[in-house]
Amino acid sequence: MAAAVTKLGGADGSSLHSEESVRRSEESRLASEESRMKSSGPVGSWESELTSIQHSLKFVLKLKEEFVCPICRGVVLNPQQNSCGHIYCFHCLQGLLESSSPSSPVCPVDGAVITPAEVFQDNCCKREISSLEVFCTNSPQCTSVITLHHLQEHLRSCQYEQLQCTNPGCRAVLQRRYLQEHLTSGCAHRMEPCPHCRQLLRLSLIQDHVQSLCPDVEVDCPNSCYQKVPRHKLTEHGELCPEVLIDCSYKRFGCSVQDKRGEVKLHEDAAVNHHMLLVLRSNTNLEQQVGVLQEEALLRQQEVQTDSLLLAGLQKKIRPLLQQSSCHEHIVSTAQRTLSRQEDVLSTVQLDVQQVSRGLPGLEELEQLRKSLDAVMQEVSTAEALREHLGSLEENLRRHSGILDLHASQLSHNKQRLQELEATSYDGKLIWKIQDFRKRKEAEAKGQPPCLSSMPFHTGRCGYKMAIKAYLNGDGEGRGTHLSLYVVLMPGDFDALLPWPFRQTVSLSILDQSGAGNHRSLSFRPDPTSKSFQQPATESASNVAVGFSCFISLTKLEAPQSAAYVKDDTLFVKVKVDMAGLDYL
């Protein structure tokens, strides 16, 4: 019909346009039908999985020709039937339509045109094909016979299926029945626990791990002490190894011996007398230094007195200078005001001079104005001189103020040093005066500062170094209700010579200031197993303080019945160490 229309319209110019419109309309129709056919026949999941092996399938009975796809020559998967009666695989027909122009796809068997609108899914043929029996693809090892529909389900559990090892780095391919044994015992890439530290590692790396990294492997001591030590304890062993080179513990007193730890221990046991001489020599030097410091303190005190007198003299000198400076400032201010007035007068004079220069009468007035101008210039010179003098006075004032600050700072330093030297005790006793009791207690209740510490005291020139700690508002169980008192051991210069742990009985007291002698005291005897009474480490500030968190209730402390512990806002705390059994060096 289209051709007829073309012949009839050939006389005029519209025939070509009509033919082109019909051709485009036909192509659009075929394309839409093809698209509809593609969307109407999705491939089933089990058929999709069989696509890769459809040409290697072995059927129990010979496959009928009608079930063979004429395009790929394999068993038809998801069969699609054309109007000519032939069936094709869905994916084969889809590929044929995509590779042919929309107007020319034809059946490869009889050449019939394939119209996508006439293609439909043959479910009857699909059921027959899915029920066909096939041999397992792993035959002859596997003798199973399965329907085509359940072949993939069987292959997922077939013991003869070839699978790749799942361990990273392993490329071995084995049958399923051997895979588990390979994964657990045969694979060189499997994960195994280290026989020492039980860390999971790849089998090929375990040997290197044991030889160089495993922390639990016992290795020879690097110092050749013939002991085997776990690798992670080498550092700890080095602190005790008898073959490590160390210095004698009396090195700071002058002993220069350095040897293996075991030999140094024998040396220390054998050279006690020599070491005692070194310690005594060091003690003598320290006593000499203390004497020098005491002399220096006296000299500093004298210097402080001299500086105080000098300071008083400077203050006397500065007072008149300040008064003079104030006076000069007043003079300068007055001179500036006068200068301002004279400038106004000068302006007036200049105007008068201009009038005179024009020939106006008044020569006598001009002479008077000239004299007035000279007087103003003289006053200006005087004001400038006063300003320079005031600047020099201010410079002298700043210099004297700097000297005064320097002397005040030196005076404060010398007083603090003198107080430390005067407060040091060497007889195991200390009376600590705590002033501003209520103010400090209130500040401590607010958390600032947390506690008070006394000046250090000693049980002898070469004895233990100790201090008192007080919590005026209480600590621990006594916080807010009791006074807490503690004693703390501090690192001393002679700790290496003293017996440890510290075993001397310690008494803490608060003193009655009424004169009745009703002091309150509590004592404790050190626990030798406590770390608080072991030798303090040199790198730490002190040991943990030990004492009484509930020494006395704040009510009894501030308002006792027969004593006066806090008087004039001052509290006296006393500590006494039992010196029995201590042998002085």
Oligomeric state of the chains present here: single chain
Largest sheet: 5 strands, antiparallel
Proper CATH architecture of the largest domain = 2-Layer Sandwich
- What separation lies between the terminal Cα atoms? 136 Å
Gross morphology: flat
What's the Cα radius of gyration? Answer: 56 Å
Average pLDDT across residues? 81
Please report which band the strand proportion falls in: under 5%, 5-15%, 15-25%, 25-35%, 35-45% or over 45%.
Answer: 15-25%
Structure overview:
Strand 11 and strand 12 form a beta hairpin. Residues 1-19 and 28-43 have low confidence and may be disordered. With 585 residues, the chain is of the alpha+beta class. The chain is 44% helix and 16% strand. It has 14 helices and 24 strands. It is flat and about 140 Å long. The longest helix has 86 residues, at 272-357.
What are the main properties of this structure?
Herpes Virus-1, 585 residues, 14 helices, Apoptosis, Tumor Necrosis Factor Receptor Associated Protein 2, Chain A, alpha+beta, 44% helix, disordered N terminus, five-stranded antiparallel beta sheet, 24 strands, flat
Question: How is the secondary structure organized here?
Answer:
Layout: H1 2-8, H2 15-40, H3 45-50, E1 58-59, E2 80-81, E3 87-88, H4 90-99, E4 120-121, H5 123-130, E5 133-135, E6 145-147, H6 151-155, E7 162-164, E8 173-175, H7 176-186, E9 191-193, E10 200-202, H8 203-212, E11 218-220, E12 228-230, H9 234-238, E13 245-247, E14 258-260, H10 261-270, H11 272-357, H12 363-423, E15 429-434, H13 437-445, E16 452-453, E17 457-458, E18 465-471, E19 482-490, E20 506-510, E21 520-524, E22 546-553, H14 554-558, E23 566-567, E24 570-577
Antiparallel strand pairs: 1-5, 2-3, 2-4, 5-6, 7-8, 9-10, 11-12, 13-14, 15-24, 16-18, 17-18, 18-19, 19-22, 20-21, 20-24, 23-24
Helix pairs in contact: 1-2, 11-12
